Amino acid sequence: MSPQDLMWLAIGLSCLAVAGGLLFALIKLGGLIDRATGALNKVDAELTTLVIPVSKTLTHVSGIASNAEKVSDRVERVAGLAESSAAALAKTADAAQAAVSPTVATIAGVVAGVAQGAKTFFGAHRRGNGRP
């Protein structure tokens, strides 16, 4: 055997060792991919069983949100009605006050006059200035 034949033999054995190492690594990678595929299939099966309850829950939550929006709209309308009613009541109270104030002032003046007259009348009788 010549040195050149020995070199070709060494190169061939090296290539065979590299191919064996690659074969081993690719077999291990295939096993890893198989295990990952199995785990993903289990996760997919679990998620499939959760689809129906989650969709029902989302439908329920959507209904609750819709009802909450309707209630919010109603509350807003009631607040608007209460505000307009309060404004109308304030106008009515102002109108009533404007209508009653002159009358009350007149009655207060009459009462004050009567009170003053009564004081004068009864005060004169107490002092003995009045006629019996």
Would you write up a description of this structure?
The protein is mostly helical. Helix content is 95%, strand content 0%. The longest helix has 125 residues, at 3-127.
Q: Alpha-carbon distance between the termini?
A: 173 Å
Q: Judging from the principal axes of the Cα atoms, what is the shape? A: rod-shaped
The assigned structural class equals mainly alpha
SSE pattern: H
Beta-strand residue percentage: under 5%
Number of helices: 1
Give the proportion of residues in helices.
over 70%
Features of this protein?
mainly alpha, 132 residues
Could you write a compact summary of the structure shown?
The protein is an all-alpha fold and 132 residues long.
Topology:
Elements: H1 3-127
